[in-house]
Design goal:
The structure is a homodimer.
Chain A lengths: L7 H9 L2 H9 L1 E6 L4 E3 L7 E7 L1 E7 L5 E8 L2 E3 L2 H4 L7 E4 L3 E7 H10 L1 H27 L2 H16 L4 E3 L4 H8 L3 H13 L3 E4 L2 E4 L2 H10 L1
Antiparallel strand pairs in A: 1-8, 2-7, 3-6, 3-8, 4-5, 4-7, 9-11, 10-11
Helix pairs in contact in A: 1-5, 6-7, 6-9, 7-8
Chain A binds a DNA duplex through helix 8.
Chain lengths: 225, 225
DNA sequence: CGCGAGCTTGACGTTGTTCAACTAGAGTGG
DNA sequence: CCACTCTAGTTGAACAACGTCAAGCTCGCG
């Protein structure tokens, strides 16, 4: 792997790391391609690696005892995954699962830690990246805690449009069931809401292509609470 | 204020900071006492300070547009507050409100940042402390997302017992309404559940004193989901 | 062509919220 | 010392929101 050809992590690494540390990380890391649906880091495993998402989209999935999943949040590249384990030595609390083909660099945790200990600007940059995911998960928590299902589904569509796909028209790579896991409601509820919104000409769905027609109305619904 | 007489933050500071930096922080910080109900850091304000909770208990409160509150989590000393703002320059996303009389050291953010930039072991220790709160909030999110109200109320009672008061008998400093804000349900629901548990001899409440009688049953209810 | 996963729909039952009325205790002022 | 008020807590009934279930549909793929 040639780290120098990569984006985000490389950018920070090039900016703040010595040639020596850079090479050290290169030696103790591996770049992998994950297909849609593949698990990058698995809930319950030991935190041997930190993952940098170079391209693609990943869900931050918690799998409960009653085989119910919850999607805490969704992130698109460039991001750092396994942020929780930058701070804890706990086993992974969640799984990171690719929902679109993704490129990931896995770096051995202990090597990265050694370098972070000697370079605080570098570590602060990483922490800032890592905590982004926490923040997003907590914003989703607030949405779940305070809003009715319909507003929450609106929140999710808006989130996908604004922060993941950066367009009012996008290829929806989540199934209805996954949307439901994200919104913390039943799949039927998602389906009914989306169908109604199609009738009301708030959005349209052809195959996997979702187009937001009436953005203002969607925002209005989101704010209803 | 004499920083050296304090606990947690001082412990880290003494361990990792030079005499010079220690004094610098002392100059740019202030120790305050907050009474029950007082706001330590207010949602929406600029993040001018980082707070260290030396003693007391604090709720991590989000205030929604529809004047509905959510308690994301609760922490007891020693902890670092305002963790989100160790990473972001955003305004505070939440309020930190004392639910029992608390001692807090407020340190100017920019001064602390300067020192963190030059001392990575120190910053890593702080990050670890700060992210504790995130982790707890996310665990609560998972509970909210996956469980029915009754299990969640059980979770909260267990959490208070195990992590906040460290006893099966404790003085409940939260009102029923606050318990409801924590469990994300209505106050009536909390009341009914607690009443029923009293009848079933799972716990007892006299005035503000709550005693868990049947811990196993409470854990069983929590696991039902 | 047939299979299966994902999607859709409506009926039904459960969970949890809202509302309204009531009680108890704490604080206030005459 | 007694109203008065205010807040927290309590209860039950009516209602809305949401999940579950069961059946049928569609589309892509072997």
């Amino acid at each position: 792997m040639d780290l120098k050809e990569q984006t985000i992590f490389t950018e920070i690494a090039l900016k703040y790391l010595s040639e020596e540390d850079f090479i050290k990380i290169e030696k103790h890391s591996v770049q992998l391609k994950f297909k849609k649906g593949e698990t990058i880091l698995k809930q319950g495993h030991q935190p041997t690696h930190i993952a940098f998402l170079q391209s693609g989209i990943v869900k931050f999935n918690y799998s409960g005892s009653n085989q119910k999943n919850t999607i805490l949040t969704l992130v698109s590249a460039p991001k750092i995954l396994g942020g929780a384990n930058l701070f804890y030595r706990d086993n992974y609390l969640f799984s990171f699962i690719a929902i679109e083909d993704s490129d990931v660099i896995l770096i051995e945790t202990n090597v990265l830690f050694e370098i972070m200990k000697t370079n605080s600007i570098f570590s602060m940059a990483l922490f800032q990246l890592a905590s982004d995911m926490f923040k997003k998960a907590i914003m989703n928590f607030i949405s779940v805690a305070n809003k009715q299902k319909e507003s929450r589904i609106a929140d999710i569509i808006l989130y996908l449009s604004e922060e993941i796909y950066c367009n009012t028209r996008f290829q929806l790579s989540l199934t209805r069931k996954e949307l439901a896991e994200f919104a913390c409601c039943s799949a039927e509820n998602v389906i009914m809401t989306l169908s109604r919104w199609q009738n009301e000409r708030i959005l349209s769905i052809f195959g996997k292509t979702l187009t937001i027609i009436d953005l203002d109305k969607l925002k209005y619904i989101s704010n209803l609470g």
